[in-house]
Amino acid sequence: MKTSLITKELLTDNNLLLITCERLAMLHAAGTPNDLMTQIGTGFLKNIFYPGLIASPNAVISAVVDDNESIVAFAAVALNMKRCLRDIVSFQPLRSIWYGFSRVLSNNKLWRPFIESMLLRAPEQSKRTAEILMITTAHSYRGRRFGIKLLSTIDDCLKGHSIRTCIARVREDNNYATRMYESNGYCEVDSITFNGCRWRWLSHKVA
Ligand SMILES: CC(C)(COP(=O)(O)OP(=O)(O)OC[C@H]1O[C@@H](n2cnc3c(N)ncnc32)[C@H](O)[C@@H]1OP(=O)(O)O)[C@@H](O)C(=O)NCCC(=O)NCCS
Asked: Is the pTM of this model over 0.70?
């Protein structure tokens, strides 16, 4: 089993890009079936979110692949959250629809506090703060330290982008993710309660 960092160059082949996005969407949905993006639909993840993220110069994806080059674990990180979201929307052919959709969502009473907290981030956000958007390991590969390995690969990559701090949001009852982050030196800096769940903002100094 090898670990490799997926580069934009590796994804320039359109066929590979489609397969990659499908796999990322599948792992994302299996890892967090109740999160907002999974609820929107795997089609959203496969056709909108991950292609946009891969195209964004403000995002990195690190992945663990098996001997058949199939992704078994990955982490997606925004180097700058606002720019990354803008890149994802701008990448879409019907971008005005997506701008409209994001406005409707941000005016919705239920989602507004969540969206604001996603955009406004933890108090220490700055140009030098990156954020883990998603990290997941396929069920049958869990507990083999791929999560911890991905976090340290991401750290190396962030150093190359002069990022000083990396933040992550984790549900209070997500014990494995919490342990994984804490093993890599992440500490709680803030929290929000949304729809009856408490989410912890964790932060970690990269360099
Ligand atoms: C969180 C997650 C990415 C961890 O992936 P992983 O590759 O299994 O993680 P690791 O093997 O590196 O282990 C991380 C920690 O969790 C513990 N752990 C992981 N799976 C475990 C299991 N099945 N049983 C007991 N402990 C487990 C490990 O022991 C380790 O803690 P330690 O350093 O104290 O030993 C994985 O559980 C997952 O995909 N969860 C669903 C998606 C998710 O919640 N993502 C995070 C929010 S975005």
From this structure: yes
